[in-house]
Amino acid sequence: MTSIPLSRPPIDDEIKQAVLAAIDSGHYILGPQCRALEAELAAHAGTGHAVLTSSATAGLWLIFRALEVKPGAEILVPAHTAFPTVEAICAAEGTPVFVDVDDWYTLDVKDAASKVTPRTVGMVPVHLYGQPADLPAVQDLAARYGLWVLEDCAQAQGASWGPRRVGTFGRAAAFSFYPSKNLPALGDGGAVLTSDDAIAARCRQLRDHGRLSKDVHAEVGFNLRFNELQAAALRVLLRRLDAMNDRRRALAARYAEGLAGLPLTLPAEREHARHVFHLYVVRTARRQELAAFLRARGIATGIHYPVPTHRQPAVERFHPPALPRTERLVEEILSLPMSANHTEAEIDAVVAAVRDFFAR
Ligand SMILES: Cc1ncc(COP(=O)(O)O)c(C=O)c1O
Predict the structure, then answer these.
(1) CA pair distance 348, 64, nearest whole angstrom
(2) Ligand 1 centroid vs 155 CA: distance in angstroms?
(3) What is the average pLDDT across 127-139?
(4) Within a 10 A sphere around the Cβ of 325, how many other Cβ atoms?
(5) Strand 172-176 and strand 190-194: pairing?
(6) What is the pLDDT of residue 140?
(7) C-alpha R_g of the chain
(8) Which architecture does CATH list for 13-235?
(9) pLDDT on residue 208
(10) 123: left (phi over 0), alpha (psi -120 to 50) or beta
(11) What ranges do the domains of the chain cover?
């Protein structure tokens, strides 16, 4: 029987050699590989600074700290995101204000505008599934109310809006190197990108125990550092990132062609945006049935995410409002296999199975 995973990481001899060389170098934490990767990440995105950290969750928290979020400060966030986006707001003692989705499953800027209060300090657009949020509209709203923007780019490394990469539209941005992400490490990892010198310096300090120098701690930070073995692997993969994203886009186009005409909503790319298909998410009212049918054929699927963040028990104390579009969406979404390392034959097998399901 075929077995098609949801995602397949790109590990090969070049990456293994880079990791072995890092092991032999005698440097393990925030050494030359990390410094080189930081410079390369900033150059790739077209921004001033990259600060490596232990995960995107850590990156988000560092940025909230650097932005001096005060307890109870309200931060607009789409409810339809991975829980860590909201978790980082809570960990920084901010108050998440949950916003509904637009037609592209990203932050609905009109709904966000209706939720601005005198306590609102910023917003966190999430480029979900690899699709940029409506960045010009986000920037307009931020300018109108004097809010900062923190882009959650965990699922969208290498995506762009017009000629600019995501991660360069707000005060700062957080990226993830979780093994299924577009730029995957062999474990957890993340980065803060920013053109703001002060935010970069503060994040650097906070990720290393608030250190001013070896023995002097200017403030209470935490240990959120990154390591040399992962950085060595990521440097190889960063050189391939655009090609890997092209590959994801080609496979998405193959899905779109193969699945056309079925009673299934396919992902659409918004005008001006370059979607990098971290996930290929279709929509059907028969989601559970379709997932079971594919599972019986050895095809893995996922749901990103079945419980929206505003309905998580962990945030009950914020009394989140109903968000009808999000609540309906999460009942119907299904992620099909997608990564730069899937073959055309695998995508064709998924297409054939989905067509068989609807032909029954
Ligand atoms: C949109 C989004 N934000 C943040 C995160 C957190 O990333 P990490 O696992 O690197 O902490 C994720 C991870 O799944 C994510 O998808």
Answers:
(1) 43
(2) 7
(3) 98
(4) 16
(5) antiparallel
(6) 98
(7) 20
(8) 3-Layer(aba) Sandwich (3.40)
(9) 98
(10) beta
(11) 13-235, 240-359
Is the pLDDT at 185 greater than 70? The verdict is: yes
Query: What's residue 2's pLDDT?
Result: 64
Q: What is the CA 227 to chain-centroid distance, rounded?
A: 21
Instruction: Kindly tell me the burial class for residue 330, based on how many C-beta atoms sit within 10 Å of its own C-beta (0-12, 13-18, 19 or more).
Output: buried
Compute the distance from residue 105 Cα to the ligand 1 centre, in Å.
16
Atom of ligand 1 nearest to the CA of 304: 16
Inter-axis angle of helices 287-296 and 344-359, nearest 10: 120
Best residue among 178, 277, 335 to mutate for probing ligand 1, ranked by most atoms within 8 Å of CB: 178
Question: Could you tell me which CATH number the domain at 240-359 has?
Answer: 3.90.1150.10
* Whether the predicted pLDDT of 112 surpasses 80: yes
* Overall pTM > 0.90: yes
Q: Please state, in angstroms and rounded to a whole number, the distance separating the CA atoms of residues 41 and 235.
A: 9
56 lines ligand 1 (CB under 6 A): yes
CA max distance for the chain: 69
Q: What are phi and psi of 343, to 5 degrees?
A: -95, 160
- Between the CA of residue 291 and those of 22, 75, 227, 284, 303, what are the distances in Å? 42, 35, 38, 11, 10
Q: Does the C-beta of 230 come closer than 6 Å to ligand 1? A: no
Model pLDDT for residues 262-273, shown as the tens digit of each residue: 999 999 999 999
Q: Is the CB–ligand 1 distance for residue 82 below 6 Å? A: yes
Residue 88, classed as helix, strand or coil, is helix
pLDDT tens, residue by residue, 311-348:
999 999 999 999 999 999 999 999 999 999 999 999 99
Nearest to 88 by CA among 53, 63, 122, 114: 63
Residue that the structure tokens 């986006």 belong to: 85
| Mean pLDDT of the chain, nearest integer | 97
Q: Containing H/E element for 172? A: strand 172-176
Give helix 228-259 / helix 32-45 axis angle, nearest 10°. 30
| Helices 13-25 + 228-259 axis angle, to 10 | 160
- Please, are residues 76 and 120 in contact by the beta-carbon 8 Å criterion? yes
